[in-house]
Amino acid sequence: MGTGRSYNTRMTFLDMLDAAGRQNQSMLCVGLDPEPTRFPGKLKGDANKIYDFCAAIVDATADLVVSFKPQIAYFAAHRAEGQLERLMEHMRRVAPQVPIILDAKRGDIGSTAQQYAIEAFERYGADAVTLSPFMGFDSVAPYLKYAGKGAFLLCRTSNPGGDDLQNQRLASVEGQPLLYEHVARLAQGPWNLNGQLGLVVGATYPAEIERVRQVAPTLPLLIPGVGAQGGDAVATVRAGYKAGAPIIVNSSRAILYASSGDDFAEAARREAIKTRDVLQAAKQDSTP
What we know:
This protein has about 290 residues and is α/β, with parallel strands linked by helices. The chain contains 12 helices and 8 strands. Helix 2 packs across helix 12.
């Protein structure tokens, strides 16, 4: 099944997340979205250097993050799945304490979902995966068979088109919640059979982050959109942080492409330190 590690890990995703957060004093997740046209210096434009670029970012930030989040499309588009497998192995070797969330946003019927689960957890050895809940619980269930693995359901995303569905009111459900609120309730309640679920909530909507936290008070929240997408780090933490319920705040482009020169890894580290420290300060301000 490829080169990924066995899904029978010693620590669950949530245990790894907690340990990495305490060890690195961090809520920051670095998203690995490699775009060869934006690579710095001598790497620029070379898709064969995706591993080299990402591995350098990992090495520069491994002691600063609570998670890494490779986005699978950025690898697959360049026929770089083999490089992603190598990168997963590299992250396990240099940062074994840091959990890896495979950003795949899969959402398909049960039999196909089972194959996607094999891809995420056996081929790549990810600790968690992002999923679309649109097709219902049977499209999520195959991932939950992997004991200790995490699954983050898209809930209130940061893209403008998220309003098209997520912000619609469900007249057929008691209380007529908005769709994203209903997803949060399902994830907090009947779908969360083994305590493996979390939610994806965009940083550009702090009020909705706060609402999701009210509906799902114990779930981990994966919050993309800080940095290049315009999300406010302080507002994000104040809306989503709650003692005992982790938040994972993702920044990708702002860190990856902090410099267009050969010092890109050092620049990425400086940006990661800055973002991590802003998040931690906001956490302290939010703690009663």
